[in-house]
Design goal:
13 helices; globular; three-stranded antiparallel beta sheet
Length: 336
């Protein structure tokens, strides 16, 4: 029997979260709107979520049945980035993050043999994000934190975010960087391109700000997972390295070391949908930096996370086991 995978990239929404948002959210300018065919959609201030709540986000029996079929033994579950709410004021953002973390932690406690949780934080309020992260890890037992690729119009390299990065180092959890609030022209919405191209582009842009903006240099204890195989970063790493040396003075990096020197701090999931791409990723970053991911339960999920590894017959047993579960357990401090 093949070893079970540890799925490091999946999303979950508790029914208690939806009910709490509908019941108590109006006091914070948030609510849940009932729509056609029994669907419900979160309204965060003046912005509706991009999609109604997907039933599969909250369907625990369906999730477990899929995991058993897919050979997934454990799953790191994080919230839905449509509920990040970075445009909200600090008080509303703190309330929303706390509701998400407490409901997720309650779910994980009931199913601790199969699931580990990742916190959400109000990144528009860096001090509040630091406080919420410490609470989520220290009091609720969550073992990672998921953040967006940007905070409204600000990048992840902004000095004002330093209190959050300091808290991440203090509690020593991995940071999952995930696309959020995709904008762009109408043509980006054609053919699902906002997901197919927009998401990996956002991840690549966030990675560039972390590498060139000096975040990984100033906070050397960070461990950062870039979803969707790191976007386009592995393929264009050489361009960032060249840009570090060749950019005009007005655009020079804040970092004093080239981007490829920070690769040991970066981790990548396997959601690349092509064995050739996974082989290249492994050649660039090494098997120690790659974890299984599914993106369950969204349309672009990888329905069979083992399959890409199976398509690389020359992968060593040790590397395969590291990617399947060992790296995830090490990142989450679960390994013995």
């Amino acid at each position: 029997m093949a070893p079970l995978a540890f799925d490091f990239h999946a999303h979950y929404i508790s029914p208690e979260l939806i009910e709490g948002l509908a019941r108590d959210g109006p006091r914070h300018g948030l609510t849940v709107r009932d729509e056609a065919e029994g669907r419900r959609r979160a309204i965060l201030g003046d912005r509706p979520a991009g999609l109604p709540f997907l039933p599969a986000l909250s369907d625990v029996p369906g999730r477990l049945a899929w995991a058993d079929r897919a050979g997934v033994g454990r799953q790191l579950v994080a919230g839905w980035m449509d509920l990040a709410g970075y445009h909200l004021d600090s008080a509303a953002g703190r309330w929303l993050a706390r509701l998400q973390n407490e409901t997720l932690a309650a779910f994980v406690r009931v199913h601790s043999d199969r699931f580990v949780g990742a916190a959400m934080v109000p990144l528009q309020d860096p001090a509040g994000a630091a406080d919420e992260l410490r609470y989520a890890v220290g009091e609720l037992g969550l073992r990672a934190v998921q953040i967006g690729t940007h905070v409204t119009d600000r990048g992840l390299d902004e000095p004002e975010l330093d209190p959050f990065w300091e808290a991440v180092e203090d509690v020593s959890v991995p940071v999952i960087v995930h696309p959020v609030e995709l904008g762009g022209p109408d043509r980006l919405r054609r053919y699902f391109l906002h997901i197919l191209v927009g998401n990996p582009s956002e991840t690549t842009l966030a990675a560039g700000t972390l590498l060139l903006g000096g975040v990984l240099e100033r906070f050397s204890g960070l461990r950062v997972l870039l979803v969707h195989g790191g976007g386009f970063l592995p393929y264009q790493l050489g361009r960032l390295v060249r840009g570090f040396a060749a950019a005009p003075p007005a655009f020079r990096a804040r970092a004093t070391r080239p981007p490829d020197s920070f690769l040991p701090a970066l981790y990548f999931d396997t959601i690349v949908h092509d064995a050739r791409a996974l082989r290249y990723l492994l050649e660039i970053v090494g098997a120690s930096q790659v974890v299984i991911g599914s993106d369950y339960p969204f349309p672009l999920q990888d329905p069979a996370p083992h399959a890409l590894l199976d398509a690389l017959p020359d992968l060593s047993v040790a590397d395969r086991e590291s990617i399947l579960s060992g790296n995830a357990e090490r990142l989450l401090r679960l390994a013995c």
